[in-house]
Amino acid sequence: MTETVENPTETAAPLLDQPYVIPVEAYYSREYAQAEKERLWSKVWLNVARVSELPKFGDFLTYAIADDEFIVIRTGEDTFKAYSNVCSHRGRPLIDTEPGEHDARGRRRQFVCGFHGWRYDTDGACTHVTEAEDWGPGGPDLDSYRLPQVQVDTWGGWIWLTMNPNAEPLREYLEPMASLLEPFQLENMRCRWRRWLEFDCNWKVALEAFMETYHVPVTHPEFRVFGSFLGWSRAMGTHSHIGYDAPKGMEENQAKVRIAQGTDDPRISTAKMQNFTWEAVNTNTTQTLVDAANRLVDELPEGTPPDVVLKHWLSSARRDDEARGVIWPSPTPEQTAASGTAWQVFPNFQIGHGLNNALCYSARPLGDDPNKCIFEAAVYEIFPPGEDPQAPWIHTPVDDEYWETHIVLPQDFSNMAAIQKGMKRHGFQGNKPNPYRERGIVNFHRNLARYVGTGAPKPL
Ligand code: FES
Ligand SMILES: [Fe+2]
């Protein structure tokens, strides 16, 4: 059973701690997908890119969601702008994203349309209409030809955009997540690797595979020897979060960077778990943490209690990193415990925050087919000053040989297309999440229904 006490800050928990069923329309109905486009994607804040990806004035990249696409561009020291990627004249996209590419990027002082040569500056103003004299004396009213602009803001080192002109400020939208994750200084992290691929499933099926720990013992059996990876899931307003169950006195072990508590000596099993995690998934840890874990057996006597092993491991890794200029944030044990292991930022971004690393997922519709999505996984860590790896997006489809050695994520992937098929089978009533370990999925659909207007979870 569960070991962690309920979090008093959780919102709406009394309503959601009972069984619910989530109607399947949310996952494959074309009408629902259309309603998402009109009422969800156009209203929320969307996570787009890292601030560090656009270091210089004029640096831009494209961001596609469903059949929309935006150009996000740096326009100043701390300012970014975003425009719909469409020429005001007759609708040709200004920037072409090559088929199979994650995005298009570059540096521009102006955008020139490839159809008839209209031009736009980085503020979205139309600066040139070819054959302007055809518009008569005075030429065209260029103010009517501006690029459609959307709002942009930054938080956590990411650029976010919203198509909603009346959206609440980003920081307010991200609460309480933003305040609870502030101590982790995510803006100081840089990408170690990032991969993207398409799945034959709805974008929500892909995200929900990572919104709970309930699947870990069955989908990832290799982790069983390292102890329990089961945990709680809480509704936090629009967003949700998860954390591992942990016994009293080990509250920090609810977090992503945690020690193993299998039947083995925790010094040995933590080292084994770190090496397995590094090789088989390359997330949730760093080389420094792996090296420090490998020393535990030499540095601590047999019988050292788990809480001492955890503290020693983290402080020795922190010291090693400090020596190479990698300064970890210092959240208090209470902050670490309260922030859990990952946040599901409504609607389609997950931040799995660790002390010196993070693992983020996102999913979004691929075109207008509710049975297809784009999925992204990105791993971050703190690098020494001046070292900024800027890992490119690598397209890594499910059958790519990379996944043959990095076996853990493919275990999650193996459920995706299968669920999309299964949910359409005769007699299936809808998702029935675990009220404790999968509560965030119910919260997710409750909030989705508020935007989309249909698909609310129903008490069973
Ligand atoms: S569509 Fe862009 S200039 Fe004609
Ligand atoms: Fe998983």
UniProtKB/TrEMBL annotation:
Keyword list, A-Z: 2Fe-2S, Iron, Iron-sulfur, Metal-binding, Oxidoreductase
Molecular functions per Gene Ontology: 2 iron, 2 sulfur cluster binding; iron ion binding; monooxygenase activity; oxidoreductase activity, acting on paired donors, with incorporation or reduction of molecular oxygen
Residues covered by the Rieske domain: 45-161
Record bears the keyword Cell division: no
Name the UniProt record assigns to this protein: Rieske [2Fe-2S] domain-containing protein
Matches recorded under PANTHER family: CHOLINE MONOOXYGENASE, CHLOROPLASTIC
CDD domains, A to Z: Rieske_RO_Alpha_N (cd03469)
Names of the cofactor(s): Fe cation
Gene3D superfamilies, alphabetized: Naphthalene 1,2-dioxygenase Alpha Subunit, Chain A, domain 1 (3.90.380.10), Rieske [2Fe-2S] iron-sulphur domain (2.102.10.10)
Originating organism: Cryptosporangium aurantiacum
InterPro entries linked to this entry: Rieske_2Fe-2S (IPR017941), Rieske_2Fe-2S_sf (IPR036922), Ring_hydroxy_dOase_asu_C_dom (IPR015879), Rng_hydr_dOase-A (IPR001663)
